[in-house]
Amino acid sequence: MKKFLLFFILYSIFLSVSVQAGEIVNVYNWSNYMPDDVIQQFEKETGINVNYTTYDSNETMYAKLKADPDAGYDVVVPSTYFIDRMRQQNMLQKLDKTKLPNFKNLNPDLLNKSYDLHNNYSIPYLWGTSAIVINDKYFAKGAVTSWADLWNSRLRDQLLLLDDTREVFSMALIVLGYSANDTNPDHIKQAYEKLKQILPNVKLFNDEAVQNIYIDEDVTIGMGWTGDIFQANQENSHVQYVYPKEGFVISMDNLAIPVGAQHVENAYKFINFLLRPDVAAKISMEIGYASPNLAALKLMPAEILHNQIIYPDSVTLRRGQFQTDVGSTDRIYEKYLELLKMGA
Ligand code: N2P
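C-alpha cells for the assembled complex are given below, as produced in the milestone run.
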C-alpha cells in the first residue's frame, strides 16, 4: 500500500511537471485589453494554460524586458512605435508566418508599414485613437471641441489625463501646431511649458482605471483611449468621445514574441487563435477597439462598424496622426513627464 502510494505521488508530480513544462504560454498584455472568456476559450480548446499578466504602458513592458530578456514572456503587445525600437534592439523574434495561417485575415492596408516593413516581427492586434472625453450632463455637446479647450481656467482640478508619456505630449504638441511625433527638443520643451499651464486643471493622471472613473463620474472631462470610452459609454451613455478639431493620435498595438520566449510554439498557437475571425471579432466588440482583421469585420453588426467611437468616419480619420517611434528623443519626453508629474 505504502509503495503504491509513493509511486502514485511520484507519478502525479511527474505528470504535473511535464504538463506544466509544455502546456503554458506566458502572455504580457496591456491592462483591460483582452476579454477573460477569450483566454478561457483558448485554454479549453488547446489545453494550454495562459499565464496572463498586464502592464500599463509601453515603457513599463519595455523596461521589464530590457532588464531581464529571460523574464519568460512568450507574447507581448507593444504599440507600433515600440515594435520599431524593440526590433532594432534585437528584443523580438523573427516570426515564421507559416505557423500563422490566420495572418491572411489581416487588412493589407495595415501591413508592411515602415515600423516593420514585412511584418516579420509584429502582428496587428487592435488599433484605436486617443481623444477628448466629456460627460454631456456637465458639458453641452459642442462646448468642448478642441484640445485647447482643456486649458480653460474654469476647468480647475477637473481633468483626467492619460498616464502615458507620448499621449500627454501629443496633446500639447498638436495644440502648438507640431507633429505628435516631433523629435525637436525645443518643441518638446515648449510642449512641456504648455503642459505646465494645464496642471492646475489636472485632477489625476491614470491609464488603468479610466473607464470606471468616467462611468462613476468621478471625473467628467479629460482624455481617453477608444476602448475605455466605448466601454464607459455602454455603462453610462453620458460619457462621450470627442475627436478634437486640431487632430488626434492613432495607435496600433501588435502581438510579438520576445527573444527570450520559452514556449514559442504555444505563442504561435495563441497568436493564430487571436487572428481567427470569430475570436478577433469578439475581442474587438467586447474591448471596444478597432480590429485590423478584415474577416472579423465581416462578422460584426452594423451598429459596431458605424460606432463613431471605434470607427470614426473617413473625414474625421483624416485628422488622425499615426504614432511613430521618436528614437532616443523618448528620453526627453520621459524626463519632462516626470518633472510635470512632480509639479502635479
Ligand atoms: C489598453 C490601452 C491600450 C491602448 N487599456 C494603447 N494604444
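Residues 30-33, 79, 128, 225, 251, 253 surround pentane-1,5-diamine (CB under 6 Å). Residues 13-20 have pLDDT under 50 and may be disordered. Further analysis is deferred to the final report.
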